[in-house]
Amino acid sequence: MRRFEAEVLALGDALRARGEKLVAAESCTGGLFAAACTSVAGSSDWFERGFVTYSNEAKNECLGVPATLIELHGAVSEPVVRAMASGALRASYAQWAVAVTGIAGPGGAVPGKPVGTVWLAIAHGDEVLLAERLQLDGDRGAVREQTVQRALAQLRAALSST
Predict the structure, then answer these.
(1) 155 near 98, Cβ under 8 Å?
(2) Can you tell me the distance from the alpha carbon of 75 to that of 30, in angstroms, rounded to the nearest whole number?
């Protein structure tokens, strides 16, 4: 996790300065984002909790993502990642949420959603500030690491613009 240390320290400083906390809702990264955040001392000041909602059932049960939304759009979609971010905020005491869902590979691709397709969302308060589709290259590990890197960068950008 040292590869993310500088970004995580900066993120923690920004959240701590605001007196705010972060929650993570992860699917394809399987807790890698939360692990990066908690790899630095003092992260309990600003990291509130993480949800690893790998299955569709977990997205529904833990985050309140409607099963019909997953059926209509698929787990790897903008509506689902938005619902994950909003649901994580409702299920926590945090003010900020990061949510990710995607296809890390090597299998799992479907028409229109090749391996490396990831949706990322950032929410603050009751608003989803960002939902973006990423198309990442590399093997499973590379897709997951790039997702964490992008989530950290986008969260820091959102913090500095609000």
Answers:
(1) yes
(2) 14
Give Cα 107 to chain centroid, integer Å: 21
How far apart CA 88 and CA 72 sit, in angstroms, is: 21
What sign does the CA torsion over 106, 108, 111, 113 have? Answer: negative
**Tokens read off for 42:** 């003092």
Q: In this structure, what token pair is assigned to residue 78?
A: 């903008």
Express each pLDDT in 91-144 by its tens digit. Answer: 999 999 999 999 999 999 999 999 999 999 999 999 999 999 999 999 999 999
Beta-bridge partners for 123? 97, 128
pTM exceeds cut of 0.85: yes
Length of the chain: 162
pLDDT per position as a tens digit, 140-159: 999 999 999 999 999 999 99
The answer for residues whose C-beta is within 8 angstroms of residue 98's C-beta and 6 or more apart is 22, 23, 24, 25, 33, 85, 120, 121, 122, 151, 155
Question: CA 80 to CA 100: how far, in whole Å?
Answer: 9
d(CA 37, CA 22): 10
**Cα 80 to Cα 66: distance, rounded to the nearest angstrom:** 9
